[in-house]
Design a protein that fits this description.
0% strand; Thiaminase-2/PQQC; binds the ligand Cc1ncc(C[n+]2csc(CCO)c2C)c(N)n1; thiamine biosynthesis; 11 helices; hydrolase; EC 3.5.99.2; mainly alpha
């Protein structure tokens, strides 16, 4: 007993490292990522964000306390009012019109990841759902920090992906990530070894699905 979030990343170390340092991520850092791969990723990420908004709505439904309900509401609001608007604006800068986003066919990797998270939330409790969401929220913050610490990473105008790194390295995003880490640490402190093993398997699967999402971008997979 007495687990914390870092015990999840330690237990799933190989998958976690493969996700954080994926070739797609390295290509964002050293500006070598093929622009077609980035555009494909951005398009699928639009669909991804819509399903993640639904996952926060499910977190509201699964909440037992007013605090948890408010937190879910804030997560849903952040995606609808901030992330999606930013994303649509960002897509426009990359030559992708909003009308095209709405008509996109969903890639298998998007379908698998988003529905896995929703199913995990339906099957389990609020902690299962938060653990399934953690590779997304905590992972992207860690990726931005990891990129900033790599000597190959180019920052500023020399890198067309600089705005992407800046978004997840921003104080606002890092604060949201730390709030989530605190919430997870408090819940994980109380779980039994058997329950921790279940949560590890959720965390590992969601992390593997994030890896597939990067790979889908690289391979322009549908
Ligand atoms: C495949 C994929 N994984 C994670 C994120 C990052 N992200 C998506 S929703 C959300 C919560 C913010 O309100 C965060 C951090 C992404 N965009 N695409």
């Amino acid at each position: 007993m007495g687990y914390r979030f870092s015990d999840l990343t330690t237990a799933c170390q190989d998958d976690w490292r493969a996700y954080i340092g994926h070739p797609f991520v390295c290509g964002l850092g050293n500006a070598t990522l093929d622009e077609r791969a980035f555009r494909h990723y951005l398009q699928q990420d639009y669909l991804f964000l819509i399903h993640f908004a639904r996952a926060y709505a499910l977190a509201g439904y699964k909440s037992r306390t007013l605090d948890d309900l408010r937190q879910a509401h804030e997560g849903l609001r952040a995606i609808l009012d901030v992330e999606l608007d930013l994303h649509i604006g960002y897509c426009r800068e990359w030559g992708i019109a909003e009308a095209d986003l709405a008509a996109l066919p969903e890639a298998r990797a998007t379908l698998a990841y988003t529905r896995y998270v929703l199913d995990t939330g339906h099957r389990g409790d609020l902690l299962d759902l938060h653990v399934a969401l953690a590779p997304c929220l905590v992972g992207y913050g860690e990726i931005a920090n990891w990129l900033n610490a790599q000597s190959f990473t180019l920052r500023g105008d020399a890198n067309p992906y600089d705005a992407w790194i800046a978004m997840y390295a921003s104080d606002d995003f890092q604060a949201a990530m730390h709030a989530e880490l605190e919430w997870l640490d408090a819940r994980l402190a109380e779980v039994t070894p058997r329950r921790f093993a279940e949560l590890c398997s959720v965390f590992r699967d969601a992390t593997r699905l994030e890896i597939d999402f990067w790979q889908m971008g690289l391979e322009l997979a549908s």
